[in-house]
Each structure stands twice: as structure tokens, then as C-alpha cells.
């Protein structure tokens, strides 16, 4: 058995970042920017008012000073003339600052009668002007790789980038296996249960930016598995679930081998997740997850999510480890790293008392995976534990 770290490295070696494609800005949210993008314009392109008021000359600002209003500058409609001594231009938020003016008095500080305004007594120093290029200038770069969030989309729009270079979405085929499984919504026979982790994994990977294909459930026969594998054709990654262990009906490894899988490893010193396998099948990377629902979801977090991120062009980051005091004493750990479902309460790690890898109700209420390293000795409450956030 190899270690979790060795397995993670081996999984990540199975795929490379995918090709670049251009998508309309409207479809770029949640995608990964694949190439640097350069602003084609300056924002704002002109000095602009940040308030509704009157544009005039700063040198003339004093209590009770009077000005003649000679025109108006509105957003989208500049005032074409020049503001001279004793003159002011009515101005609105976002409008270009007229020539000659270098100060905007907000309308609350002004009394207007006809074309004449009189300033109040507490004008202050703030000019209420947004300088040209105050936000960004033409030539400024948005640097790739970058997972595009709503604020990035707004920035790219302001930069007049209508088509965005992004990494192609990895296509992940998810193949649940087992005679006991039916799809949610179907009526199970007495010996059957409902497939769950395939749906959890699809949700996890789609959340990262992958496109998933949930294949029909394969039965525990060589023919059914082969048929299902054939449906994965064209995917970048196939993730199988179940049939990975040593039982008579665990056929994933032999069938995959028959179909040409070059195995990178089988079995990891990890709990849950021991019978994990990975390799390449032709153009696809292949990861075989254990069937137990929590094992599949934990391995999804620790191994599948990172390879999807790599395919998306987000690089290889070390898992983000956090630490917090343990809320209770813990017995020594054994020969497999234990990824324990835990809750963070008042800053302390509370591992659930029930750690069986079939318990989705425990996983669903956990917000952390407390990691007990191989052969970790007994620990006392208050000692620091390391965890992954879920
Ligand atoms: N003699 C041994 N038995 C087992 C070993 C071992 O080392 N020696 N390892 C155990 C460990 S650890 C795990 S993990 C499991 C993994 O087994 P498989 O990957 O072959 O998974 P299955 O047997 O197909 O299923 C296990 C369990 O999970 C349920 N399942 C499967 N797929 C789904 C799904 N898509 N949605 C919901 N539930 C699913 C299945 O019904 C079983 O209950 O092997 C141990 N045995
Ligand atoms: O390695 Mo298994 O995934 O503990 O239940």
C-alpha cells in the first residue's frame, strides 16, 4: 500500500491541463481564465463626477460665494464648453468633468435661485471627482489562471472583453457499479439500495467546474461493466464507484485491465479509501473509488477534486490544512491515515463517535475531516489536530 501523499502525486500525474477555448463573457462565470487578458480601455475614460452637484473652480470655493450656472453635464452627455471664473455647470454622478472645472460641490451644499447658486459654509476639501483611469487603464492585465467569480466577470465586462479564453471543462464520466443499486426515484427491490455517492460526486465535481456524465449503473457482470465503460468514451476522466475490493463480485480492476488500463497503483494506506485504484485507459485518466458512500466522497475530496483542478489549469496546490484543538482524548491510530468526520464547535474539533464508511448522515453533518497520520500516538483533549475543511 502506498501513502496518501504518494497516491495523490500519482493521481495528479495522470492528467494535464486541458485546451483553451473562447467563450462569451455571459458564459464565463465559474470557468477558469486560461490566458492573461489585457484591458482594451481605461476606466473611467474621463474624469467623472462621483456626486450630483455643481462643477466649478476649487480656487473660488468659499462660504457664500456665488456662481452662474452656464450648462449641464449628465452621464453620457458632456458639457462642451469651458468653466470660467464665476461660472458653474450642473453635473450628475458619472458625468464627465467639464473643461476648466476641478471641483464639485454637492447639491446639498448649494442654494439655487434661477441660474445663480450660492455656496454654503461647510464645503470641505473633497473634490468629488473620479480621475480618468482611477479604476484601471488600458493595458492592465487580469492574470491567469483565475477561477472567474462574479466580480471578475464585471471587471472583464468593464474592460470590454466580450470573449474570454478559458480552459475547456473536464468531462468526467461517473460509473456506479453494483447489482444492489437503483437510481434515486426508482423503487428498490428488498435487497437493493439507492445509489448515492455518484450523485454526491457529480455535485462536487460540477461545483469545481467539471462537466459530469452519470452513466447507467453497471451490474456486477463483465459484460455490463464493459458496456458501461464504452459509454465513457470521449471523457477526460472516468471515475468508477464500487467493485474495487477483493470480493468475488468486485470486477472493476480485472475488467479495466482487460480494456487496456495501465494501472498506476491499487490500495492506499488510508481510512476510508483503502481499495482506491488509478491509472490510464487510452485517452482517459481512470480512478476507481471504493463503493462505501463516505469512502467515495472522501476519496473524491482528496484525489478526484485535485485532478479536476489540475485539468482546469488551476495547478497543483497542497491541500489546505487547518489546525484546531481536539475536543476529546483519542486512541492511537493504526497503519492507515484516518480521515475522520468531525465537527468544529467553538473552535474545537469533535470527531464523530461513528466513523463507519457507510454513514452519509454523519458525513452530511460534518464540516471537517480530522486527519490522523499513520501510527499517530494517543492524543489528549486540547492537543492540536490537523483537518481539511469540507
Ligand atoms: N475481505 C475484505 N473485505 C473488504 C475489504 C478488505 O480489505 N477485505 N475492504 C473493505 C473496504 S475498506 C471497503 S472501502 C470496501 C470497498 O468495497 P468495493 O469498492 O468493492 O465496494 P462495493 O463492495 O461495491 O460496495 C461497498 C458498499 O458500498 C455500497 N455502494 C456501492 N456503490 C454505491 C453507490 N454508488 N451508492 C451507494 N452505495 C454504494 C454497497 O452497496 C456496499 O454496501 O470493501 C470492504 N471489504
Ligand atoms: O477503506 Mo474503506 O473505504 O474504510 O470503508
UniProtKB/TrEMBL annotation:
Catalyzes the insertion of molybdate into adenylated molybdopterin with the concomitant release of AMP. InterPro entries: MoaB/Mog-like_dom_sf, MoaB/Mog_dom, MoeA-like, MoeA_C_domain_IV, MoeA_C_domain_IV_sf, MoeA_linker/N, MoeA_linker/N_sf. Belongs to the MoeA family. This is Molybdopterin molybdenumtransferase. It comes from Sulfitobacter pacificus. NCBIfam families: Glp_gephyrin (NF045515). SMART domains: MoCF_biosynth (SM00852). Pathway: Cofactor biosynthesis; molybdopterin biosynthesis. Residues 173-310 form the MoaB/Mog domain. Its EC number is 2.10.1.1. Keywords: Magnesium, Metal-binding, Molybdenum, Molybdenum cofactor biosynthesis, Transferase. Its cofactor is Mg(2+).
Amino acid at each position: 500500500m502506498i501513502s496518501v501523499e504518494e497516491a495523490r502525486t500519482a493521481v495528479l500525474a495522470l492528467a494535464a491541463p486541458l485546451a483553451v477555448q473562447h467563450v462569451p463573457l455571459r458564459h464565463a462565470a465559474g470557468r477558469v481564465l486560461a490566458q492573461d487578458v489585457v484591458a482594451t480601455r481605461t476606466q473611467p475614460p474621463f474624469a467623472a463626477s462621483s456626486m450630483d452637484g455643481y462643477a466649478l473652480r476649487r480656487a473660488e470655493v468659499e462660504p457664500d460665494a456665488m456662481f452662474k450656472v452656464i450648462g449641464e453635464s449628465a452621464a453620457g452627455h458632456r458639457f462642451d464648453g469651458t468653466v470660467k471664473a464665476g461660472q458653474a455647470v450642473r453635473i450628475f454622478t458619472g458625468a464627465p468633468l467639464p473643461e476648466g472645472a476641478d471641483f464639485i460641490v454637492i447639491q446639498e451644499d448649494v442654494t439655487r435661485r434661477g441660474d445663480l447658486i450660492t455656496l454654503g459654509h461647510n464645503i470641505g476639501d473633497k473634490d468629488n471627482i473620479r480621475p480618468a483611469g482611477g479604476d484601471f487603464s488600458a493595458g492592465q492585465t487580469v492574470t491567469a489562471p483565475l477561477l472567474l467569480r462574479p466580480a471578475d466577470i464585471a471587471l472583464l465586462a468593464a474592460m470590454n472583453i466580450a470573449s474570454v479564453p478559458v480552459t475547456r471543462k473536464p468531462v468526467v464520466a461517473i460509473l456506479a457499479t453494483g447489482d444492489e443499486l437503483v437510481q434515486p426515484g426508482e423503487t428498490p427491490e428488498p435487497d437493493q439500495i439507492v445509489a448515492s455517492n455518484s450523485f454526491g460526486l457529480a455535485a462536487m465535481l460540477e461545483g469545481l467546474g467539471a462537466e459530469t456524465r452519470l452513466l447507467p449503473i453497471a451490474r456486477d457482470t463483465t459484460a455490463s461493466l464493459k458496456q458501461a465503460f464504452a459509454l465513457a468514451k470521449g471523457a477526460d476522466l472516468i471515475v468508477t464507484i464500487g467493485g474495487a475490493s477483493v470480493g468475488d463480485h468486485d470486477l472493476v480492476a480485472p475488467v479495466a485491465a482487460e480494456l487496456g488500463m495501465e494501472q498506476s497503483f491499487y490500495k492506499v494506506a488510508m481510512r476510508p479509501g483503502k481499495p482506491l485504484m488509478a491509472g490510464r485507459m487510452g485517452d482517459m485518466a481512470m480512478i476507481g473509488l471504493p463503493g462505501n458512500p463516505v469512502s467515495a466522497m472522501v476519496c473524491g475530496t482528496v484525489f478526484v477534486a485535485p485532478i479536476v483542478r489540475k485539468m482546469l489549469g488551476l495547478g497543483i496546490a497542497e491541500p489546505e490544512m487547518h489546525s484546531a484543538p481536539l475536543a476529546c482524548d483519542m486512541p492511537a491510530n493504526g497503519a492507515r491515515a484516518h480521515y475522520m468526520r468531525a465537527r468544529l464547535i467553538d473552535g474545537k474539533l469533535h470527531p464523530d463517535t461513528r466513523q463507519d464508511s457507510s454513514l452519509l448522515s454523519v458525513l452530511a453533518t460534518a464540516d471537517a475531516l480530522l486527519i490522523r497520520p499513520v501510527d499517530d500516538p494517543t492524543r489528549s483533549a486540547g492537543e492540536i489536530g490537523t483537518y481539511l475543511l469540507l
